[in-house]
């Protein structure tokens, strides 16, 4: 069987490019996501439009932070795939993901309508941690038991 490790690394770089694009695009600012949420709530006639953008427990805040968890969780998984079978694949994947999250926040400091947030790096690191140390072991345990 041929070694296709380069495909794993290609996926890492593609996903990093996707994150970079989202950070660079004005379509993914808080103002725009609040607009999307309002349109969806209006379309489905959900009540609670007053909670779209009103602080910590707003729909905009929750959706944006869940996106951070998910996007960087996927990146951690891709790093892990590219680094395995190295016995340090998980801690290295977490470290690389967290460093990329920090560099992404720094990149945001140069984008109009964006601001770097240390809390976002922490959320990104938590997303990576959840995927690498909770979800992946669960999936492996389930696969091995079959």
Structural class: mainly alpha
Helix content: over 70%
Tell me how many strands there are. Answer: 0
Strand content: under 5%
Q: What spatial form do the alpha-carbon principal axes imply? A: globular
Spell the H/E element sequence: HHHHH
* Uncertain stretches of 5 or more adjacent residues: none
The tally of structural domains comes to 1
Q: Give me the number of helical elements.
A: 5
Description:
With 146 residues, the chain is mainly alpha-helical. It has one domain. Helices cover 73% and strands 0% of the residues. It is built from 5 helices and no strands. The mean pLDDT is 86.
Give the topology, please.
Layout: H1 5-24, H2 30-43, H3 59-83, H4 89-108, H5 118-145
Helix pairs in contact: 1-3, 1-4, 2-3, 3-4, 3-5, 4-5
Question: What keyword list fits this structure?
Answer:
146 residues; mainly alpha; 73% helix
Short description:
This protein has 146 residues and is mainly α.
């Amino acid at each position: 069987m041929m070694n296709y490790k380069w495909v794993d690394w290609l996926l890492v770089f593609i996903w990093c490019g996707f994150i970079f694009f989202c950070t660079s695009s004005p379509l993914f600012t808080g103002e725009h996501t609040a607009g999307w949420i309002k349109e969806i709530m209006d379309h489905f006639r959900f009540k609670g439009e007053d909670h779209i953008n009103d602080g910590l427990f707003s729909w905009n805040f929750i959706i944006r932070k869940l996106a951070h968890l998910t996007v960087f969780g996927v990146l951690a998984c891709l790093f892990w795939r590219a680094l395995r079978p190295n016995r340090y694949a998980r801690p290295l994947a977490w470290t690389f993901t967290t460093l990329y999250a920090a560099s992404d926040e720094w990149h945001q400091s140069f984008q109009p309508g964006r601001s770097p947030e240390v809390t976002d790096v922490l959320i990104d690191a938590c997303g990576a941690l959840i995927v690498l140390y909770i979800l992946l072991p669960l999936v492996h345990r389930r696969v091995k038991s079959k």
